[in-house]
C-alpha cells in the first residue's frame, strides 16, 4: 500500500517512514498541508497519515479541502492533540480514524490496513479471488490452499491488483506503487513483472486472473471473468454480439 505522511516533525516523520517501509508500505512524506492537497489531487494513495499541527495550514483545513475536492482517500489523524473536541472536529470534517501520540507502531499498522481494506470494500484481512487467497497481514499468498512464493515486487503488484479488483491499473500506477518516484526504471519493467507473476499463478493453478487491457494497463478479474476472460477483452467501441438462441428442444430442458 502507498501512504502519504503529512507531518512537520522531521525526526518523528523519519522514524515513522522507516517503520512503515519496514512493514512493506510505500511512503511519501511532506511537511506542508498545501503540498499534501496537491499530491492527493495528482497521485493515488491508499491512506493519508496526517498531523493536525502543521506550519502552513491546519490539518483540519487539509481534510476540509480534500473532501471538498471529492478526494475520498482515507485519512488517519496521528496527532499530539488529546482533547475530545479535536477528535470530534476531525471526524466531522471527514477523517476516518484518530490516533494520538505517543502511539504503538503495531496498532498504527493494523489501523492502516483496516482502513484501507474497508475503503476498498473488504472486511477481512484475507482476500479471496477464485482459488487464490492473499493475506494482507502476513503477506502470504496461496492457491488451492498451497503456498505461492513471490518476490517482494511480485507480491506488491498482486496485492495492488487484488485490492483494486476490477479496476484497470496503468503502468504508471504500478511504478508509483513500487518505487514512489524514486529511481524508477523504464516502464517496460512492469510488463516483465506481470509476465513472471502470470507464469507463477498459472503454474500453481490460477488461470487467467490478470487480463491485459491494450493501451491502458492490467486488471484482475473476478471469479466469473476468470472463467470467461474474453468478456473483459471486448473493446468498448465494438458492439457486443447478442447471445445465441438455444436450439435445445423445450421438452428436453
TrEMBL record:
GO terms for biological process: regulation of DNA-templated transcription. Residues 124-222 bind DNA. Signal peptide: none annotated. Residues 124-222 form the OmpR/PhoB-type domain. Keywords: DNA-binding, Phosphoprotein, Transcription, Transcription regulation, Two-component regulatory system. Residues 2-116 form the Response regulatory domain. GO terms for cellular component: cytosol; protein-DNA complex. It holds the Pfam family Response_reg. It comes from the Bacteria. InterPro entries: CheY-like_superfamily, OmpR/PhoB-type_DNA-bd, Sig_transdc_resp-reg_receiver, WalR-like, WH-like_DNA-bd_sf. One of its GO terms (molecular function) is phosphorelay response regulator activity. PANTHER family: REGULATOR OF RPOS (PTHR48111:SF22). This is Response regulator transcription factor.
Amino acid at each position: 500500500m502507498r501512504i502519504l505522511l503529512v507531518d512537520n516533525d522531521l525526526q518523528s516523520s523519519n522514524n515513522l517512514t522507516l517503520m512503515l517501509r519496514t512493514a512493506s508500505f510505500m511512503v511519501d512524506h511532506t511537511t506542508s498541508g498545501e503540498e499534501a492537497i496537491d499530491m492527493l489531487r495528482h497521485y493515488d494513495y491508499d491512506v493519508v497519515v496526517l498531523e493536525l499541527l502543521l506550519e502552513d495550514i491546519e490539518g483540519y483545513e487539509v481534510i476540509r479541502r480534500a473532501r471538498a475536492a471529492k478526494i475520498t482517500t482515507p485519512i488517519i489523524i496521528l496527532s499530539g492533540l488529546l482533547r475530545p473536541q479535536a477528535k470530534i472536529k476531525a471526524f466531522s470534517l471527514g477523517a476516518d480514524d484518530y490516533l494520538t501520540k505517543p502511539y504503538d507502531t503495531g496498532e498504527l499498522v493494523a489501523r492502516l490496513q483496516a482502513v484501507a481494506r474497508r475503503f476498498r470494500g473488504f472486511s477481512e484481512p484475507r482476500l479471496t479471488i477464485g482459488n487464490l487467497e492473499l493475506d494482507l497481514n502476513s503477506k502470504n499468498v496461496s492457491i488451492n490452499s498451497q503456498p505461492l512464493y513471490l518476490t517482494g515486487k511480485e507480491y506488491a503488484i498482486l496485492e495492488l491488483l487484488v485490492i483494486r479488483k476490477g479496476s484497470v491499473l496503468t503502468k504508471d500506477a504500478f511504478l508509483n506503487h513500487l518505487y514512489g518516484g524514486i529511481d524508477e526504471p523504464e516502464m517496460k519493467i512492469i510488463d516483465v513483472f506481470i509476465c513472471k507473476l502470470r507464469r507463477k499463478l498459472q503454474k500453481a493453478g490460477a488461470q487467467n486472473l490478470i487480463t491485459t487491457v491494450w493501451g491502458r494497463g492490467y486488471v484482475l478479474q473476478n471469479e466469473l471473468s476468470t472463467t470467461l476472460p474474453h468478456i473483459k477483452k471486448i473493446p468498448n467501441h465494438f458492439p457486443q454480439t447478442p447471445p445465441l438462441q438455444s436450439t435445445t428442444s423445450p421438452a428436453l430442458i
